Amino acid sequence: MAARRARLAGASVLLLGGGGAASSRVSSVNTALAYAPEDTPARLFDDMYRAGGYVNDPRVIAAFADRIGDEILGLQQLGVPFHCSAGRLARRQAAGSTWTRAVYSLGMIGVDIARCLTRELENDDPTKYRRIGGGQLLQLHTADGRVVGGLAYSPRERRWLDIDARATILATGGGGQLFGRTTNARASRGIGYALALEAGAELVDMEFVSFEPFVSVGTGNRAGHDLPTTVLQEGARLLNGLGEEFLDTSTSPTKDIICRAMMREVSQGRGTPAGALLYDITGMDPDVVDRYVQIKEALRTHNVQPQQAQFEVMPAQHFLMGGVRIDAEAASTVPGLYAVGEVAGGAHGAHRLAACGGMEVVVGGAIAGDNATSYALAQRNRAPRPSFRSDPALAVPFSDHAAVLSVIRSTLDEACGVLRVGTDLQQAVDVLAEAGEAAADDRQLAVLRSVRVAQAIARGALMRQESRGDHFRLDFPERDDRRWLKNISVRLADDQLDISTGGRRSLATV
Ligand SMILES: Cc1cc2nc3c(=O)[nH]c(=O)nc-3n(C[C@H](O)[C@H](O)[C@H](O)COP(=O)(O)OP(=O)(O)OC[C@H]3O[C@@H](n4cnc5c(N)ncnc54)[C@H](O)[C@@H]3O)c2cc1C
User: Fold this and answer.
1) In the chain, at which end, N or C, are there fewer CB atoms within 10 A of the end residue's CB?
2) How far is residue 178's CA from residue 452's CA, in Å, rounded to a whole number?
3) Whole-model pTM above 0.85?
């Protein structure tokens, strides 16, 4: 989305990587189409701000909420096959939304959007648009306090690229692979957060991690299916091991509330023998079931008909709300660096509303593409930048860090899950500090990057002595607006993580 908008705005674009990791799993996208009085940007803003516990940035949410309707209609004109009913885009009610505002297709809408955008770009002028499929950004270059491009490696071509770019947009996704049980694909390694830190950018809200409630448990390929929450408004039920409904889902609770209720139910002995809960679709209209690719995949794997289907589910790590602090123009705190999608922080605060991840990449991509281009065009006459040397040590594959990764994963699973407590968090911070020192002594920068991202999550979670959104502290179970209506930010200073809190916000002024 950002690449296409940058091309439309007149920039030459080099796209690295590509191929949506999380984006290909997007099934519904929140929007505001003004079909009804409740279907407005203001109401979408309210839903996101409330879900985010009022620590998300109202300017960023407003920019997203105001533009998402037009961007979705623009995508429809481009040929994205949104499902329609009576001449309008059909919509579902995502968990936590007060209105049925999530648009979808009969396939995976994330795949459909990417396909249309890729087709547009591939038909573009090859002297103005180039894609290096699988190309990995491994370092951001800075000069005079600005990001001026980066160093990339193309595994397919086995060559390094020293990229001179007037503006750089990070869209590297999340870091779910730093957790053991996650819905995230292998590409979600969290490197973008580390690259931004090294370039001098600020991260924000890293302590806030969200969990997907309905992820199937079991053995082999029966495990790990993420099942949609939107069906709670379409006839599906959430049951405990005794067959009882234990959560009022009629009010469309947010996913953090669902996850905590699930953990409580199991810890109080009312789970299934496998320690899970039941996602029951036996009462759903088969035509509605038919509109969900993920449910059809799970039915096929479990070899069961919808009328008999009860899947055992438990929460798994899903999304990092934190990321590169951006403003309403998607600009980071370092000139020349923009961020969009899960690597960006600010839009979601303490909890990302369901169906607002896809919304963020669509509208945030448009905003980043437009503004990065304006910035780049204004830099046209800047002095030539120095050249930078490649460093083969940066290209060590993530899988080579198996031993450290397993420490990071078990540490984050244990301490930074749905329910958190100070003693576990302190232990996690100590373990990660040791792992970080070892990686620094051995000059293993690639390992150190993963450790730093994990440290930002654990140290932020230890610092925030309250509960808000997805961050639930058993030792501080209440929301504390007096002390904690503020953000925790992370920077790198002298190669050390510097974690601090900003000023308290005022609810009255927003
Ligand atoms: C299972 C699942 C289901 C979801 N369902 C929904 C939904 O229905 N609705 C919704 O709104 N949200 C949903 N989300 C959330 C949503 O998918 C994400 O918020 C969004 O797709 C993130 O997009 P992104 O572009 O930031 O990251 P991604 O789509 O993950 O893309 C990141 C890309 O960056 C590449 N990359 C990473 N590092 C580098 C590097 N160093 N150099 C070059 N390239 C790099 C990766 O290979 C990848 O292609 C879901 C998420 C998951 C995991």
Assistant:
1) C
2) 11
3) yes
